[in-house]
Specification:
Blueprint (H helix, E strand, L loop, with lengths): L1 E3 L4 E3 L2 H10 L7 E4 L2 H11 L3 E5 L10 E2 L8 E4 L2 H11 L3 E3 L8 E2 L3 E4 L4 E12 L4 E7 L6 H7 L4 E5 L8 H11 L3 H20 L2 E12 L4 E3 L2 E6 L7 H4 L9 H7 L3 E3 L9 E2 L2 H13 L6
Parallel strand pairs: 1-17
Antiparallel strand pairs: 1-16, 2-15, 3-9, 4-6, 4-9, 5-7, 7-8, 10-11, 10-13, 11-12, 13-14, 13-15
Helix pairs in contact: 2-3, 5-6
């Protein structure tokens, strides 16, 4: 499906997101990226204990995915030894992860991120997005973190809260307190959470982001609030200001059809049907696909 876009954007890998977080002093725990099984083995030793190995791909839903070549389940593995880290990385790097957000061919994995586990008390969802309807930034939060937010929105929409922000003020002390209250943070976790929310706002503005999604945002047993997994999207009209961020993009990991569409200022989304769609808006795209499905076809 091809769509004309008014605002273009691109995503980066999780390990790159955490590099950006560190520049804004956002708490992300301890993480080491590896580009080969031997580097993963060394990274495990550097972390000094059990680790979570996460495939670095341009797709969500990694935990529920599977590897096309081997059939091994999940793009997120927990390992207890350097040998396990090496084996797990070997199952990921150079292979293709299939998730709900990819086609049946999956997406290639060229790196893994090893993260030290955190002592989790609770997990939350936190995001700052640009609301196209109001042309203003909004915060979306939920106490249901660590799961697909789409599932929560479908089954329990009342568990998702939304705060429209003033684009100038952003997340100040008062707004950060409201967010903490919505998430049920208390005591030390509330104070740490308020600081993290304000840091994430500064990151959102400072990087020309259109999406800062943290899932899960984790409260630890000792009251820390940590960005365990983050997904960022950026407005690529700001490439002249954000040269380092735009230098992160791995074009070899992007569908060549997406690159071709990008050159014409369009978005390309790969679907598995056989009837192509060319649309100029999300609403029209959904309506067009509905009509095709109702008529017995499959959109592509």
């Amino acid at each position: 499906m091809l769509g004309v876009r008014s605002q273009r954007g691109f995503n980066i890998f999780e390990y790159q997101s955490k590099e950006i977080c560190r520049r804004y002093n956002v708490s992300v725990g301890t993480n080491v990226v590896a580009f080969s099984p031997s580097e993963a083995e060394a990274a495990f030793r550097r972390l000094g204990g059990p680790a979570v190995v996460k495939a670095q791909v341009y797709a969500g839903g990694r935990g529920k995915g599977y590897w096309k070549e081997s059939g091994v389940r999940s793009g997120i593995h927990f390992v207890k030894s350097s040998a396990d880290a090496r084996r797990s990385a070997g199952e990921m790097i150079g292979n293709h992860l299939v998730t709900q957000q990819t086609g049946s061919d999956g997406v290639a994995c060229k790196a893994v991120l090893l993260s030290a586990p955190v002592k989790t008390a609770r997990e939350y969802y936190f995001a700052i997005l640009l609301d196209r309807a109001t042309q203003a930034p909004v915060v979306i939060v939920s106490r249901e973190g660590g799961v697909e937010i789409e599932e929560v929105a479908h089954s329990h929409p009342e568990r998702i809260a939304r705060i429209q922000l003033d684009g100038i003020v952003g997340i100040d002390e008062a707004v950060a307190g409201r967010i903490g209250a919505l998430l049920g943070l208390k005591g030390l976790a509330l104070e740490n959470g308020k600081r993290e929310f304000q840091k994430l706002w500064k990151l959102f503005v400072g990087t020309d982001a259109v999406q800062v999604e943290v899932n899960p945002l984790t409260e630890t047993t000792d009251g820390e609030v940590i960005t365990v997994d983050a997904k960022f999207g950026f407005d690529d009209s700001a490439h002249y200001r954000q040269k380092q961020i735009f230098g992160y993009r791995d074009l070899s990991s992007v569908n060549p059809h997406e690159l071709r569409a990008d050159k014409s200022g369009m978005n390309y989304i790969e679907l598995e049907g056989d009837i192509a769609c060319l649309v100029n808006g999300a609403g029209l795209a959904m309506a067009t696909m509905d009509v095709i499905k109702l008529s017995g076809g499959n959109p592509a």
